[in-house]
Write a structure and sequence with these properties.
- By secondary structure, the protein is of the alpha/beta class.
- The protein is 21% helix and 28% strand.
- Strands 4-3-2-5-6-7 form a six-stranded mixed beta sheet, with helices on both faces. A three-stranded antiparallel beta sheet has the order 1-9-8.
- Helix 1 packs across helix 2.
- The protein binds 1-O-pyrophosphono-5-O-phosphono-alpha-D-ribofuranose.
- 1-O-pyrophosphono-5-O-phosphono-alpha-D-ribofuranose (PRP) binds next to strand 2, strand 5 and helix 3.
Length: 185
């Protein structure tokens, strides 16, 4: 297993930004339920924290699974729904919750298929955005952090299924001497 590498965003930085995003979302939506559609697996930690930070409203949490990468560090360009919604979102306020936007292939595809289900509104919140990597343009309303083009792990993000459980976000390194430097487990 490669080492996790250099600390990029600490747990404290992430939690502070999550609270700011939640306050912005609370302010932007009128009363009424909001459906958080979380994209597994990477967004599981972000949706857990974001949903708890939303104060004002009825929050409903739904999961979809979309596979686009396999166990590689680079995108295969293949996107498929491996778990669909259990609910009808027609007429509802829907917020897609993602951990990271890289090429944009996953989210542009997801946005397109969810729009066809005629929600009242459809927006995207992502914790991380790598704008340099964008191939498919996608409109994202809420961004936690814009980060450079480096492979990151932790806080839900994996490398070959490892490191999702880290509280911090680190730049993956294959340098053994950097192993778990600055990481709080
Ligand atoms: C990651 C991430 C996004 C997608 C972003 O998921 O969670 O869904 O890649 O990449 P893109 O903008 O290039 O499409 P991944 O397929 O790695 O699955 P996971 O969330 O289960 O780790």
């Amino acid at each position: 297993m490669p080492s996790a590498g250099r600390l990029l965003l600490s747990s404290e930085q992430i939690q502070k930004r999550v609270r700011e995003l939640a306050a912005q979302i609370d302010a932007d939506y009128a009363d009424g339920p909001i459906y958080l559609i979380s994209v597994l697996k990477g967004a599981f930690m972000f949706v857990a924290d974001l949903s708890r930070a939303l104060k004002k409203r009825s929050v409903r949490i739904e999961f979809m699974a979309i596979s686009s990468y396999g166990n590689q560090k680079t995108s295969s360009g293949q996107v498929k729904v491996t778990h669909d919604l259990d609910v009808n979102i027609e007429g509802h306020n829907v917020l897609i919750v993602e951990d990271i936007i890289d090429s944009g292939v996953t989210l542009s595809y997801l946005r397109r298929i969810l729009e066809q289900r005629r929600p009242k509104s459809l927006e995207i919140v992502t914790l991380l955005d790598k704008p340099e990597r964008r191939v498919a343009p996608v409109a994202v309303k809420y961004v936690g952090f814009r980060i450079p083009d480096q492979f990151v792990v932790g806080y839900g993000l994996d490398y070959a299924e490892d490191y999702r459980n880290l509280s911090d976000i680190c730049v993956l390194s294959s340098e053994p001497e950097l192993r778990l430097e600055g990481v709080s487990l």
